[in-house]
Amino acid sequence: MIIPLAHILIFSLLLFATGLYGVLVRRNIIGILISIELMLNAANINLIAFSKSTSLSPETGQIFAIFVLAIAATTAAVGLAIVLALYRVRKTVYTDEVHLLKW
Amino acid sequence: MNMPPLLRDIEFAVDLSFVNAKGWILDLLSHIVPDWVVVFASIVISGVAILVLGPVIMMYLTLLERKLIGRIQNRYGPNRVGIWGLLQPIADGIKMFTKEDIVPVYADKVIHCLAPIVIVIPALMVFLVVPFGERMTAVNLNIGLLYFIAVSSITTIPIFMGSWGSRNKYSLLGGMRTAAQMISYEVPMTLSVVPVIMMSQSLSTNKIVLSQSGSYDMNWFIFTPWGIVGFIIFFLCAVAECNRPPFDLPEAESEIIAGFHTEYSGMKFALFYMAEYMNAFTLCGIAATLFLGGWQGPFLPSWIWFLGKTFVLICVMIWFRGTFPRFRVDQLMGFAWKFLLPLTLINILVAGLCHFISEKTGWIYSFIIFSISFWVLVRLNRPWMPEKRHYPLAN
Amino acid sequence: MDMLSLIIKFGIYGTMALALIAAIAVVTLRNLFHSALCLAAVLIATAMIYAAFHADFLAAAQILLYVGAVMTLIIFAIMLTEQLGSKTIRQTNRQNLAALAGLLVFVVILGRVIFKTPWPVTEKALASKVTVMELGKAFMGPYVFPFEVISIILIAALLGAVVIAKKDR
Amino acid sequence: MVTSDQIILVPLLPFIAFAVNLLAGRWLKHRAAWLSVAASTIACFIAIPVCWAVFQGNHFANQGTWLMLGQTPLKFGYVMDPLSSSLLFMVTIVGTLIQIYAMGYMHGDPRYSRFFAYVSLFMSAMLTLSISDNYLLFFMSWEIMGLCSYLLIGFYFEKDSAAKAGFKAFLTTRVGDVGFLIGFLTLFSAIGTLNFSEMNALMANAHHAGAPLHAGLLSLAALLIFCGTIGKSAQFPLHVWLPDAMEGPTPVSALIHAATMVAAGVFLVARSFSLFMIVPNVLPVVTVIGTITAFMAAFIALTQTDIKRILAYSTISQLGYMVTALGLSGLGAGTFHLITHAFFKALLFMAAGSVIHGTHVQDIREMGGLFKKMPHTATTFIIASLALAGIPPLSGFWSKDEILLSAFASGHKIVFMILLLTAFMTAFYMFRLIFLTFFGQPRNLKVHAHESPAVMTAPLWALAFGSIVIGFPGSPFMHHWFQKFMAHMVHHPEYEPSAFVMACSVAAAVCGISLAGVIYLKKIRWAQKTAETFSFLYRLSLNKCYFDELYSRCIVKPFQSLGRFLFGFDARIVDGAVNGTGHATLFISAVKGWIDKYIVDGLVNFTGTLTHFLNSIVKRLQTGFVQNYLLIVFIGILVFLVWELKII
């Protein structure tokens, strides 16, 4: 390991927190999706770091990371399709303008 | 190979001349500076070679194209600047440098300026894994082919940047067309490479080339049933990937002026142009690597073989430009998704089949399978005509 | 420690810093297209970190999938939905301060945990270098079932995306 | 290869033909007839070997449980004994021939396929009835036949008279059918079975023991069952529907109202003969009814002018003969006459139909001299008439002789005299009909007669052959084989043949024919003079003994006035009560409406307002804003994290 594991974990934590901030704060749904990709990336970094340092079979972490990649791709595809459908119906992509379930 | 020893020595010397030159320089350096500097020097030497090679290739490809197109269209092509017009690219370069650099008022200026720079980077980066000759791969990555595909897929982003940053509807339309086209053709291209990976059992470009050696170094993958189909698919996709005719919809002059680089002029335009020609070159080079045996070949030095094959393929591309009319958008997408994609999947199956049976029966079976699937796919894709359009003003 | 690994180390730290800055730009930039480009930067930086951890295949896959495909999709969506003159629209909602406070607490807690935990580092794992072939064998061996499941999920997502995004006729 | 169970196919095939014709008739068009005829023909070819086996002395029966009535299983099955086999033999042959004839007669009818569907259904029901082994199945097919009769009489329902005739037939027979239903249910309660053979066995035991069980109940049952016969076989006083039933197509008249369905009534008595034998005082009633019917119908027939009506009254008269025979314990004689009559009466009707087909008139006064124009029809008609009149050696002679013999030998001299007189009248009116129709000069020049096609005349000749030979099994030439065959069924007295009776019968017939010939070929005004002389009798005969008027006056009119009275009652009192209830309800509902509006609704609204007020406070949690929820989830996770890691 070239750099200590904790540093990578802190890096991924910060990346995750940034993504979470985006998810909580961005008004644009596409912005939220982008932030979700950030969070997934942070998780992937963790997986790789652990597979490189503590895992018993070294390929497990990578394989899980690849699964996460695939899931991220599906998330993006379906999520963006939903956004497009929403935009077509409501002419908006801002979360606080889509509040049919509001009181 | 049974050659006289002297000849072989000479051939080796010529073959490895560039490699030996680099080794000699590094050897010299290692006496003067610490090790890590030598490593850096190695990288720098390769990098400088590539950085020089890229623009030169671009410049002379434009000349080649103009000449060839000229001949195809019954004219001479550029012949005034220098002997046979050889100095024409340099004159063009000077013109590009001295032209006014226009930035539209409402453009997203940072992105507008960043786009041409960014687009060159992947175009240059893919040179890293192109095996120019024996031991002449800049970085012998063990995932070389994947690296190539991944890096060349980045190209969509600078195109988006250029099209978005220009704030021009033709740019935007052209950018979206480009992205759609590149994404679509990336799929069959990647899949058409799969049989090669299966057969050579490696992702390294170098190993792929090595696995095509054999008697007279002519055991190329194009001489197998799956190889020839894969090569055709790969080459068509490559033509589409670098937006060349007949797949040049993103920059169709008659429809959307010049596509995503409508608003670019001067050196920024030159960078786009350069990236395009470098992409064409690398794609042809990779096609030669994957299917035509790369630098493998009898008698001649390896890098001559490689460059020769690559230039033949580039000439075919130029020939395409002089011959075929442009596709329509729906035809373009349908061709990728409904024709090439199924055919690549069938090709993977055929490759598996050929691996397990003898060569002759393999040819027969493959011929039958490809004929049937070709016929079926053509039948299925028959209604390429779009729905009848209504022109309200015409009524 | 020799110079080369020092350079690599600083390279990694630099990449991390770049990724973090780009990530902050992703969530704070007003122009969504810019944040998408910054995301691309983050992703490429992450890919480089993967490569530094000898996960070559994953790095290439990251670039191919994320930068090549997902980013293109996102930018497409942005282009289809964004009004070009929307600079004045507020891009964050009113709970940013609350979120920021919560996230600070979160980072502090988890940071404490990370630094306090004695992470076991095995030499075997450090020495290992996973090749593409091993990955492929793992996919076709112990992980074949999740692999097949993910393929089904991909197909389902493909169909679902097409159906959802298709215009009603 | 006579396997008995194939007999089930016999009713089933026409039923399939019915179903197909009904469902696909629009598509089949004229092919419908082929289907029906084929079904009947195949049924015939299946039935005849089985019947032949029964004639050889075999006996088949099979049954299966249909449902359980409490502890008593209700079994359906078939029985092939002498009685049912004779009927089956007759019905399949006559039915098939009549359907072939109908193909020609009904040609070009718009409801061609429906006609054959109905006929097939009727055939199916009739054949089921022939082979059924219990009263319930018997009754079911009996009712289906009634339905078919109704449908086919009213086949030309555009004609008001046809619709009304169907209605009349249906209602009139209904009286008898209800009697029959109650009758066999009474019998079931008395002896606990509906199965014929079980009943026969019980009766035989009782007969030998000499002590009838529940004599009163059984008598009632027998009388009620006889009601069914009266209705179906058009006996006095329920005979009025049969002449009107002639509104239907002629093949229907031949098949249903001459040969088969009306005979079913007689068949019912024959089936229940063991019951009738054992109970006292019922057979005389049967005899009286039969005699009255026979005489009265013959008397009415003397003056009728419609060709089909004459034949209808003749049918009633002959049915009366059969009932009389049964009443005189002459099971063999009655059944024999049933079979022979079916042949020659069907032939008569079909020939009459052929005449109508050829001339398009039905009134015999408008015909005349048709012999030359329609030789086949006329010849076969005369053969049938001779058989009906009782001229030896035709079939009618042998069967009628048997009946007269049983009347003579059992000592009922009055009955014998009446029957003899009836036989004379029969010969007279039949030949009045023949001479008016086929001989003399054409009286209406507008009538352009022509011979019917072969598809109609061929069945005529086939039946004519049958009419000639079918009497021989019961004649002395074959040693009264038929009567002996029938005697296997139920023990009943047998009589020695008497030359005197034969002579009387032949004499009556010859007298009737000669008289008719003299009057209607030479001295036509004698008829006029006779009518004037005996004007009362003439009018009585011409107006069918005023039965219709009587029924109209006694039954229909009172019912109508009762209906009118009840209508008034309904309109005034019942409606008044209903309206009063309505008004009261309106008033009460107005009161309740007020209560609802101001008290109940007030409460409900109050609850609603309260809820609304409360939720206006609570609802602010639901912002409808996804990220808000997410933030709350996130904070919740933070709290858990803090709690779990025990940081604070």
Can you walk through the features of this model?
Chain A is mainly alpha-helical and 103 residues long. Chain A has one domain: Helix Hairpins (Orthogonal Bundle), CATH 1.10.287. Chain A contains 3 helices and no strands. Chain A has helices at 5-25, 29-53, 59-90. In chain A, helix 1 packs antiparallel against helix 2 (29-53). The N and C termini of chain A lie far apart (54 Å). Chain B has one domain. Chain B contains 15 helices and no strands. Chain B has helices at residues 5-15, 17-32, 35-72, 88-98, 109-125, 144-154, 156-165, 169-200, 205-210, 225-241, 253-256, 266-291, 302-323, 329-356, 359-380. In chain B, helix 3 (35-72) packs parallel to helix 13. The radius of gyration of chain B is 23 Å and the shape is globular. In chain B, 42% of the residues are buried. The mean pLDDT of chain B is 82. By secondary structure, chain C is mainly alpha-helical. Chain C has one domain (3-88, 118-168): Four Helix Bundle (Hemerythrin (Met), subunit A). The N and C termini of chain C lie far apart (67 Å). The model of chain C has no long low-confidence stretch (mean pLDDT 83). Chain D is mostly helical and 648 residues long. In chain D, strands 1-2 form a two-stranded antiparallel sheet. At the A-C interface, helix 1, helix 2 and helix 3 of A face helix 1, helix 2, helix 3, helix 4 and helix 6 of C.
Q: Give the tally of structural domains of chain B.
A: 1
Query: How many strands in all of chain B?
Result: 0
- As a percent range, the share of strand residues of chain B is under 5%
Task: Work out the radius of gyration of chain D.
Answer: 34 Å
What characteristic shape of chain D results from the CA principal axes? elongated
Helix content of chain D: over 70%
Radius of gyration over C-alpha positions of chain B, nearest whole angstrom: 23 Å
Strand order of the largest sheet of chain D: 1-2
Distance between the termini of chain B: 75 Å
Note the quaternary state here: heterotetramer
Q: Supply the helix-strand structural class of chain D.
A: mainly alpha
**Low-confidence runs of chain B (pLDDT<50, min 5 residues)?**
none
Poorly predicted residue ranges of chain D:
none
What does the main sheet of chain B amount to? none
* Principal-axis shape of chain B: globular
Keywords for this entry:
heterotetramer, C: 169 residues, mainly alpha, D: mainly alpha, two-stranded antiparallel sheet, 25 helices
Summarize this, please?
The complex is a heterotetramer of chains A (103), B (395), C (169) and D (648). With 395 residues, chain B is mostly helical. Chain B has helices at 5-15, 17-32, 35-72, 88-98, 109-125, 144-154, 156-165, 169-200, 205-210, 225-241, 253-256, 266-291, 302-323, 329-356, 359-380.
